[in-house]
Amino acid sequence: MSAEPILTQDVIGLTKPAPVSRRGFMTASAAVAAGYTLAAGPVRADVITTDTSGLTVGDARIKVADGEMPGYFARPAGVNNPPVVLVAMEIFGIHEYIKDVTRRLAKLGAFAVAPDYYFRKGDLTKITDTPQLVQLVNGKPDAELLGDLDSTVAWAKSQGGDTSRLGIVGFCRGGRTVWEYAAHSTALKAGVAFYGAPLDPPNPLWPKSPMQLAPDMKAPVLGLYGEADTGISVASVEAFKAALAANNKTAEFKIYPGAPHGFHADYRASYRKEAAEDGWKQMQAWLKKYGVLG
């Protein structure tokens, strides 16, 4: 019998959503047909859908140390040298929400790429058992993750992206990835972390949590968090903010009153329109401020 997976702060936030009416959700078959994962629970009927007009979109094949990593990209059509923005996914794989976010970034002028860095574990969008999913994603070594992101940057450059204007945006576990990559990459100009956990449970594959990496941050990061997140406490966010300030690192935080974990995820019951829309505006301003977006 396998051991119970260790619940990280982000997963606790996902599995204890704020109460919400169950009306207004797609049937399971409709959600699957639309390209959404079922692992996160029922999918809202009024999801945000971003069209591909003015964009070039498609599947990526990214060369990594041990083969090819799949991914999804969207970029403005006919634009030379667009800035590159990595999209760091939640734990659910590259499903329709992550693809739509990638298209939203492309509409802002970015060559946005969402690498499927869990591909060695299988197609996470097809896994509906949360404990199994958690066990798989918790088995991803940070060293491998950071290498995969570096490979994605190299791929984007080979496709005509301007990696001198490199950003990263991530959600949930991808929010943690933003902090980790900001401590790793010397090329990164700015990052935006939506509810990325500052602290990790003990895991030999994750040598340092974002909190422990506070002295090593190399790029300015904006952290967007929900005050009602049941997994990531306001106290832990404030402690992280203090650690970054003590190390003279450039970071800002915004905590949305009453917002749960996953407030930007418009396909889930956790979605909070006002916080999500403001967070997206804050993200744009941050990426513009640090020269990623024009």
From TrEMBL:
EC number: 3.1.1.45
InterPro entries, per database record: AB_hydrolase_fold (IPR029058), Dienelactn_hydro (IPR002925), Dienelactone_hydrolase-like (IPR051049), TAT_signal (IPR006311)
Entry keyword set: Hydrolase
Domain of life: Bacteria
GO molecular function: carboxymethylenebutenolidase activity
Residues of the Dienelactone hydrolase domain: 69-290
PANTHER family: ALPHA_BETA-HYDROLASES SUPERFAMILY PROTEIN (PTHR46623:SF6), CARBOXYMETHYLENEBUTENOLIDASE-RELATED (PTHR46623)
Protein name per the record: Carboxymethylenebutenolidase
Organism for this UniProt entry: Bradyrhizobium ivorense
Taxonomic placement: Bacteria, Pseudomonadati, Pseudomonadota, Alphaproteobacteria, Hyphomicrobiales
